[in-house]
Fold this protein.
Amino acid sequence: MHYSQSKKRFSLEIILLSLILIPINTHAHPSGQSVEIKTGEFYADIGLSNDTLSPGDVSFDFNLLNAESRQPIPFTAVEVTILKKEQIEFRGAIHKQDFGPPGMRYLFRGNDYRMKTIFLDGYTEIATVEFPIELASAATQNSNITRKIFLASLIIVLGVLGGILMFRGYAKKK
């Protein structure tokens, strides 16, 4: 019976260790940068999935904050327009869900983009911001990929070593 209890505890510890080591990224902000633009009495806070924007797939999330208190301002949707050299590449409304900020993903090709966001409460416009999207070069993108591969490898090695050490500790108890 002692062996069964220690096996259950070992399994529980492995599950908890796995949950700690697995990065959970449901929104853009946790792993990337944030663009904050003041517009009147509000800050439009637009989260990006990457530290540096480069051509490729990018995630965005959208928040609206009170400029003084930095408290969230309720809104029902955000209308997003992505322009490339004055041509509309994307335009759509993203409704705010019950949990977390509204978000989207977009595949950028090349450079010279601008994003316009309109925060809405029903059909009433609360705030509008427009800003350029500066994309990094391919060299910067490659250095970010190398860094991510290194970090992922390091996490795997640490997880394996932790598992081996924990297994040896349980084997010695037997």
Q: What stands out?
A: The longest strand covers residues 56-66. DSSP finds two helices and eight strands in the chain. The chain has a mean pLDDT of 77.
